Amino acid sequence: MLADLMFMVSMIVASIFLLWATTRCMINLKMIKLGLPFFFSGVLLCFSAAISFYGIFDQKIWFGLEFSWTILFFWIFVNLRRVNGNN
Amino acid sequence: MEITNAFILSSYFTQIVIILILIGILITEFFNRKKGERKNIVSFLILPVGVAIYFILEIYLLVMDSVAKAILLGNIFISAFLVSLFLFDALKCKRYIPKLLSFATVFFGYCISINGIFRVIYGTSIFNLINAAVSLFATIFLFFTILNFLINSSGGKK
Questions:
Q1: DSSP 8-state class, residue B144
Q2: Quick check: helix, strand or coil at residue A75?
Q3: Residues B92, A2: Cα–Cα separation, whole Å
Q4: Are residues B147 and A56, on separate chains, in Cβ contact within 8 Å?
Q5: Are B59 and B112 spatial neighbours (Cβ–Cβ below 8 Å)?
Q6: Which residue ranges make up each domain of chain A?
Q7: Residues A54/B23/A64/A66 CA torsion (nearest 10 deg)
Q8: I want to staple B109 with a disulfide (CB 3.0 to 4.6 A). Which of B71, B76, B83, B133 is the partner?
Q9: How far is CA B98 from CA A23, B47, B138, B147, B155, in A?
Q10: Rounded CA gap, B71 and B57, in Å?
Q11: What is the mean pLDDT of each run of 10 residues along chain B (158 residues)?
């Protein structure tokens, strides 16, 4: 119970920080496209926090979450290669 | 708790966090901008506050497992009013906002209102799920529309 609560609070704090920092960066640097995967990471963290509150990490939800993380990491990877050059 | 209900509640929870971030960003931008630019920011600030009230009512309905007709009807009027307000704001600042984003927000916003009518008539079983999904899209589009407005309208810091 305590572990669930700690996980949930840390996820919420992480997601709020990530969303806030990404949005400030997007406004100050005037670049929305590069910040998009980080924004969706924040949304996914928020979803994880809310789902952990109900304690129903069954297989379908787990598959969905991990698949979304894979897509997001590839998105960030492609962005990194595009910005720094394909070397 | 069922998976469907958990998905709906987590969707509303995520949307409340996004809306709170949006309110914070708008308030900080309000204090950073010159006096002439502040008027438009205030008109956009009313929107997320209304959206937050809408989601709090929805969460109340779900958590209490209630089908109170007054709240369901109230939510239809709140969503329709908010979309009209957004349309008014978007037309006022149309040179700062991409057309496609604002059209998408208005479309999903009216989908919420129409879905609300079905919820009153046929009950709340499947339409709650549709409502959660559609409102998630609407909130994300609203977020990026306002972000685009903030980026395009900034003429320089104070």
A1: H
A2: helix
A3: 50
A4: no
A5: no
A6: 2-83
A7: -100
A8: B83
A9: 18, 18, 15, 11, 18
A10: 7
A11: 78 91 92 80 88 88 80 88 90 88 91 88 82 91 92 69
Q: Report yes or no: B21 and B142 within 8 Å, Cβ to Cβ.
A: no
Each residue's pLDDT tens digit, A47-57:
888 888 776 66
- State whether A27 and B3 contact (CB < 8 Å): no
Q: How many CB pairs under 8 A join A and B?
A: 56
Q: Does B150 touch chain A (CB under 8 A)?
A: yes
Question: DSSP characters for B85-100?
Answer: HHHHHHHHTTTTS-HH
Cα separation, B12 vs B22, whole angstroms? 15
Residues 6+ positions from B9 with CB-CB distance below 8 Å: A50, A54, B59, B62, B63
Given CB atoms, is B32 within the 8 Å cutoff of chain A? no
Comparing CA positions, the residue from A34, A41, A52, A51 lying closest to residue A15 is A41
Specify the residue for token string 């109340």.
B60
Q: What is the ipTM of this complex?
A: 0.87
B18, B144, B151 member nearest A19 (Cβ):
B18
Residue B26: both structure tokens together = 């708008």
Please answer yes or no on whether A20 and B147 come within 8 Å at the CB atom. Answer: no
Please identify which residue in the block is written with the tokens 């709170």. Answer: B20
**Helices and strands (H and E) in chain A: how many:** 3, 0
CB contact under 8 A, B1 and A54: yes
Interchain CB contact of B120 with A (< 8 Å) = no
